[in-house]
């Protein structure tokens, strides 16, 4: 598991404590994702990875799994470089 | 840990205080009775750069840090909660455009909002939808080159004078947000009067009848109207209202302290009666606690901490309920004079009621705040 992946997993695990979240597991299917978590998740990826999530990124598929968030971060970091 | 204002923040607070003492506090009672603020005041706020505080420098805004912004809000609210509510709603809309607006939307609206040339208003509530935001009945449909909006919004703060409405509507059953300019055909604004508190906040009902909104004015994405757009606006609104509550309670304290020192009963100033002191003590302690919560929330916002959202909920909950207690005690300390419009505490009590209803009622806060803790168990 690379660093980005493990940081995202660590953040999300705070919300899914009793569950060992897998990299391709759909977090929305687990329930529990509400707008509070969504706002914190966006703030987390922005701060942790120095990216800025914009309106073009508002797509549930960008946040569905740990790996999809990893891909979003990589894409944004690539675009900023 | 060092929790103190830096020299720039202290200087800014002095500037805000002087402005409010000269331009706002002496007139607030009069505006409350007239149920309006004068346009000259809006000009003064524009000249000072007090509207659009949170617009980034690249769009011509002052880009105030969140703590300084909080201090501005507190000071304005000490003078007049209606004026504070102008800053709240205008900045909520600017905040959302800065956060989720397309490059075109940012270019078009933010410089004008930073200059205060366009005032923003927040249109979520309707006759049948308040706390349950997702249940709004205003509808939008795709009609080729435009979105067509039909519906009705209620309780829109400063709707009477705003030029840009952030509107939540259902697009094919999905909550979606739109930026609607006031002078579009199909928009009608009807002033709403007779509210208990923040009476000068120039509320309106806004009607949309076959209103054609340009395609580029959808903000965010379809279906993200609540989870991203309105949540972001309300996050800012709650932060602003929390500081507004601190300002209101501080005004209650200032008025009560002065009155208790001057008013004599049983041969001594009423401040010498222990039960009066007890009320003063409660206000003193609670207003300080609320201010600390707000400062912490501001600091978390400035450091872009993901925990800021939760902290803002707590600050708004504590500060707004505290403001009600402070205003009740302030009226009690003033006796019959506290029930008279000749004394500002009468207005403060009415204004405090509103703070527990807007940006998530006290009950919604009570339901939501434990989620932040519970979801981390
Ligand atoms: C002065 C003023 C200015 C305003 N400005 C604006 C504005 O600019 N823009 C805008 O969109 N709106 C505005 N509003 C409206 C405000 O946002 C709503 O009043 C608020 O969201 C509450 O909605 P409601 O009044 O429909 O009450 P309701 O949602 O009908 O609630 C009524 C009562 O039921 C309680 N309740 C509701 N749901 C629950 C629940 N699940 N569990 C427990 N209790 C619950 C509430 O706490 C409240 O006590 C303003 C209101 C006022 C008074």
Question: What does this entry look like structurally?
Answer:
Chain A is mainly alpha-helical and 81 residues long. In chain A, 51% of the residues lie in helices and 0% in strands. Chain A has three helices and no strands. Chain B has 377 residues and is α+β, with helices and mostly antiparallel strands. Chain B has three domains: 7-114, Acyl-CoA dehydrogenase/oxidase, N-terminal domain (Butyryl-Coa Dehydrogenase, subunit A, domain 1); 120-224, Butyryl-CoA Dehydrogenase, subunit A, domain 2 (Beta Barrel); 226-374, Butyryl-CoA Dehydrogenase, subunit A, domain 3 (Up-down Bundle). In chain B, strand 4 (164-171) and strand 5 (174-181) form a beta hairpin. The longest helix of chain B is centred in the middle third of the chain and has 38 residues, at 225-262. Chain B is globular. Chain B starts with 6 loop residues before the first helix and ends with a helix. The model of chain B has no long low-confidence stretch (mean pLDDT 96). Chain A binds chain B through residues 11, 14-15, 17, 32, 34-41, 43-44, 46-47, 54-55, 58-59, and chain B through 100-102, 219-221, 224, 226-228, 231-232, 235, 304-310, 368, 371-372, 375-377. Flavin-adenine dinucleotide binds next to strand 1, strand 3 and helix 11 of chain B.
């Amino acid at each position: 598991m690379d660093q980005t992946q493990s940081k995202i997993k660590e953040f999300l695990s705070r919300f899914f404590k009793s569950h060992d979240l897998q990299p391709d597991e759909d977090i929305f299917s687990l329930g529990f994702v509400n707008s509070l978590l969504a706002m914190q998740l966006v703030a987390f990826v922005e701060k942790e990875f120095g990216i800025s999530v914009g309106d073009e990124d508002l797509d549930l598929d960008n946040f569905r799994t740990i790996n999809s968030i990893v891909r979003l971060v990589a894409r944004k970091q690539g675009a900023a470089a | 840990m060092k929790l103190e204002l830096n020299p720039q923040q202290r200087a800014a607070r002095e500037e805000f205080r002087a402005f409010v003492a000269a331009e706002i506090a002496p007139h607030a009672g009069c505006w409350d009775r007239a149920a309006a603020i004068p346009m000259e005041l809006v000009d003064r706020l524009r000249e000072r750069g007090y509207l659009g505080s949170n617009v980034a420098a690249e769009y011509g805004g002052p880009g105030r840090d969140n703590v300084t912004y909080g201090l501005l809000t507190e000071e304005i609210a000490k003078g007049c909660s209606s004026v504070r509510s102008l800053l709240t709603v205008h900045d909520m809309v600017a905040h959302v455009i800065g956060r989720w607006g397309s490059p075109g939307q940012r270019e078009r609206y933010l410089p004008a909002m930073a200059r205060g040339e366009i005032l923003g208003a927040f249109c979520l509530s309707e006759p049948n939808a308040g706390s349950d935001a997702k249940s709004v009945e205003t509808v939008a449909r795709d009609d080729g080159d435009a979105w067509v909006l039909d519906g009705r919004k209620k309780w829109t703060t400063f709707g009477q004078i705003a030029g840009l409405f952030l509107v939540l509507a259902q697009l094919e059953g999905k909550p979606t947000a739109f930026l609607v300019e006031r002078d579009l055909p199909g928009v009608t604004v009807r002033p709403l009067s007779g509210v208990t508190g923040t009476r000068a906040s120039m509320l309106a009902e806004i009607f949309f009848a076959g209103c054609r909104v340009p395609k580029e004015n959808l903000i965010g994405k379809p279906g993200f109207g609540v989870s991203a757009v309105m949540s972001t606006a309300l996050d800012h609104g709650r932060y602003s209202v929390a500081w507004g509550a601190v300002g209101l309670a501080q005004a209650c304290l200032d008025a009560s302290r002065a009155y208790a020192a001057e008013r004599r009963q049983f041969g001594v100033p009423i401040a010498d009666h222990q039960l009066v002191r007890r009320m003063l003590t409660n206000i003193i302690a609670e207003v300080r606690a609320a201010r600390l919560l707000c400062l912490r929330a501001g600091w978390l916002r400035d450091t872009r901490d993901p925990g800021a959202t939760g902290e803002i909920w707590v600050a708004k909950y504590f500060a707004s309920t505290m403001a009600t207690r402070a205003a009740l005690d302030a009226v009690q300390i003033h006796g019959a004079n506290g029930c008279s419009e000749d004394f500002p505490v009468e207005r403060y009590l009415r204004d405090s009621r509103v703070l527990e209803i807007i940006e998530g009622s006290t009950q919604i806060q009570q339901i939501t705040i434990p989620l932040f803790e519970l979801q981390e168990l």
